[in-house]
Amino acid sequence: MAKTVARMTREELQEMIETSIEQKLLEILGDPDEGLSIRKSVRDRLLRQKKGVKAGERGQPFDKVVRRLGLE
Q1: pLDDT by residue (tens digit) across 14-51?
Q2: What is the 3-state secondary structure (H, E, C) of 22-54?
Q3: Residue 1 — pLDDT band, cuts 50, 70, 90?
Q4: Which residues contact 5 (CB under 8 A, 6 or more apart)?
Q5: CA–CA gap between residue 16 and residue 8 (Å, rounded)
Q6: Which residues make Cβ contacts (< 8 Å) with residue 16, sequence separation at least 6?
Q7: 69 near 60, Cβ under 8 Å?
Q8: What's the domain of life for this entry (predicted)?
Q9: Could you tell me which residues come within 8 angstroms of residue 13 by beta carbon, excluding any fewer than 6 positions away?
Q10: 59 phi, psi to nearest 5 deg
Q11: Over the stretch 49-72, which tens digit does the pLDDT of each residue have?
């Protein structure tokens, strides 16, 4: 849906700008990870996480992780 800048919230405008900058940087600099391989264990973990999220599973709440890591 097209929206004029005047009708955007601050967050929507910020998101639009961030997305535009990221796209332009990728266009100019390219993907720094392109052509690199990942370890099988990392790939397997990412695929498990993707499947879990698709099934409705969620990770730990942010505040719980902060407390567990002592970052309060």
Answers
A1: 999 999 999 999 899 998 888 999 999 999 999 999 99
A2: HHHHHHHHCCCCCCCCCCHHHHHHHHHHHHHHH
A3: low
A4: 13
A5: 10
A6: 8
A7: no
A8: Bacteria
A9: 5
A10: -75, -165
A11: 999 989 988 888 889 999 999 998
pTM of the model: 0.43
Phi, psi values for residue 18, rounded to 5°: -60, -45
**The residue to which tokens 């973990």 are assigned:** 45
Q: Is 1 helix (H, G, I), strand (E, B) or coil?
A: coil
Structure tokens at 4: 């004029």
| Residue-level pLDDT at 16 | 94
User: What is the per-residue burial (b if ≥16 Cβ within 10 Å, else e) of 9-43?
Assistant: eeeeeeeeeeeeeeeeeeeeeeeeeeeeeeeeeee
30: its two tokens: 């390219």
Six-digit token pair at 21?
Answer: 């900058």
